[in-house]
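Researcher: Batch entry, complex prediction.
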Amino acid sequence: MKKLVAVALSTVASIVISASAVNAETFKIGLSNGWVGSEWRTQMIDEAKAAAEKWKEKGVDVEVSVQSANVDVPGQIAHIRNFIAEGVNAIIVNPNSPTAFDPIFAQAKEAGILVIATDAEVSSPDAIYVGIDQTAWGAAGAKWLAETLGGKGKVVAINGVAGHPANEMRVAGYKQVFKDYPDIQIVNEVNANWDQAQGQQAMQNILATYPDVNGVVVQDGMAAGAWKSIMDAGKTGQIAATGEIRKDFIDLWVKDKLNSGATVNPPGVMASALNVAVLMLQGKELKEPAKAGQYGNALYLPIPFIDSKNLGDAAKQLEGKPGYYSYTSSLSIEEAEALFK
Amino acid sequence: MADVAVTPRARAGGIRKLLERYPFLPALVIVAALLLLNGVFSPNSLSYRSLTGLLSTYMALIMLAIAQTYVVYAGDIDLSAGSILSLVNVAIVVLMERWGGGAGAVLLALALGLLLGLACGLVNGIVVAALRLQAIVATFATSIFFTGFALYILPVAGTPAPALFWRTYGGRLLGVPFVFYILAVLVVLLLVLSRTRLVTQLLAVGDDQQAAFQTGLPVVPVRIKGYLLCGLFSALAAFCITGDTASGDPLVGGKMTLYSVAAVVLGGSALSGGWGTVVGSLLGALTIGLINSVVFFMGTPSEWQNFVQGLAILVVLMAGVLAGRRARA
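Model: C-alpha cells for the complex:
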C-alpha cells in the first residue's frame, strides 16, 4: 500500500513538473533495441522517433529515450531497469528473448509502466505485443507462391535460424498453407541463417540437386542471395521465388522483371507500437483487447504484400532512398485511434 | 637525473605496495567513479532499489567472470563458459518443470546443474590439458558442442522456471534482498578459495608452466582442476540468470562469454596467466554493467551508444593497465 501511494505520488509529481507547457500532455517513452546488426533496426528506431514527433501536432508531447546497442539478455534487462529508474511512462522493446523478460516486465508493471513488445512476441502477461503475426507472414508468401504456380509444382524452402521463435512460426505458416495444395511438393528445406551469402550458397546447391524446381519460399535477409543464384543459373524466367523489401532488391525486381512476391515485415512496427502506447497512456481502451497469439497478449497489425500488381507503388515509395532502406508501413495516429473505443 | 627519478619512486612506493597487496584497487576506484557518474546523471540510479537491480542482473556475469578467472590464472581461457551457462540454464529449468517445481525438485535440479557444470569443465580440462589442444580453439569447439546439447534439451526458448525459484532469487529474506546474501556467501567462498593450495598452483602454472613442471607441480591435473572450477562457477552463473529471467533459453549465454573475458581483464588480471584476482573480475563485471547504464544516462544518442560504450571500455582498460603496470614494474 505504502509503495502504491509512493508510486502514485511520484507519478503526480512528475505530471505536475512536466505539465509546465500549457495544457500539453507529456509522455516519456523508452525504446529498447538489443541488436544492432542490420539497417532494418536503425530504420525501425528512426521511424519510431518520427512518429513521436508527429504527436506534437495533436498537442501531445512525446519524449522518447532510446537504448540501442548489441547486448546480451542481462544487458537488455538492464535497459529495462534503467528505464524504470528514469521513470518513463511506457517502454517499447524489441526483445532479445521471448521468455527472459517476465520478471523484469512484472517489476515495470508494478512501477506503473506500460510495456509493449514489438517485432518479436514475449510470453509475459504484464506486456502486450504490437506487431505482425510471423505465422501469417510465412503463410502469405506461401499463398502467393502456390497461386503463382497454379497450385502444383516442386518447391524448396530456405529458412532462417533453427530454433529462433520467428523462424519456427514462419515455417509453421508456410507448411499450413501448402497442406491445402496437395499437388505442391516440398522437396527440400534448408537453413541459411538469415544470411545473404548462405542463402546464395543454399540456392546454388538446390539448383544443382533439383534442376526441375519451380518455386522457392525464402525469407527476407536471404532472398536477394537466393535470387542471385537463380539469375546466375539463367533460370530467372522459370522459377518463382519470394523476395525482399529492401530498395536494392526492389530495383532489381523491376529491372529484371522477376517473378517474385514479398511479404512485408515493416520496420514501422515500432512506430505503430508507439502510437498504440500513447493512446493507451491517454487512458483509452482497445475495442478488441490484445489477446491474440500463443501467449494471449498480442495485437496483430496488417501485413502488406508486394507483388507484380503493386510493385510500381512500392518502387515509388522507395525512390531516392538508399539501397538498404526497407519498404515500410505503420499505423498512423488516426489508424491507431480507430482501434480504440 | 637519478635524483629526480628517486623522489617520485619513493613516494610511489606506498601506492605500489598497496597495489601489490590489493591488485584490484584500480578496478575498485573505477567502479566507484562510475557509480558516481551514474548518480550525477541520474540520481535515481543510486537508489537502493536500482542498486539491488544492478546486482541481481549482473550477478550472472559476475559469476561467469569469476569462472573465467580461474582458467585465466593458469594462462588458459574458456570460450565455452557462456555455452555451459546456457546448457545448465535449460537443463535445470526443464528438470524443475518435469519434477513439479516444488522445493525438493528445485534443490535436486540445482544439484544436478552443478554436476553438469563440473562435467562440462572436465571435458574442457581433458581436451585442453590432457590432450594438449590449444585452449582458445578447443573451448570454441566445445562451446558449439554444448550449445548443440542445450538446443537438443530445449529447441526454442520457453519453459518458465518455477515461481518458487525466481521469486526467491528476486525477493527478500528478513527484509534484505536475496542477492545480497548471494554476494556475501560468494565473497566468503572466494576468500576461502583464495587461501587454497589450488589457486596458488594455478597461478604458478600460469606464471611459468615449464618452471612449475620442473619444481614438481602436477601441471596437467592442476589445469584440469582450473577448468572444473570454471565449470562450477558457470553453473552458478546459470542459476543467477535463471533467477533473473525465470525461463530457459538455449542461446542466452552465447554473447556473455566475451563479456566474461573482458570483465577478467578489466579487473586487472593478465590473460597470459600468473597474475590476477577474482575480486577484480567481480568488479570488472560491475564495470561493464555500469558503463552500459552511464552511456544511456549521459543521454548518448542511440546511434552512438555502441561507439561510446566500446570507447569507455577501452579507456577503463587503459587506466587499469597503466595502474597495474606500475604495480608490477
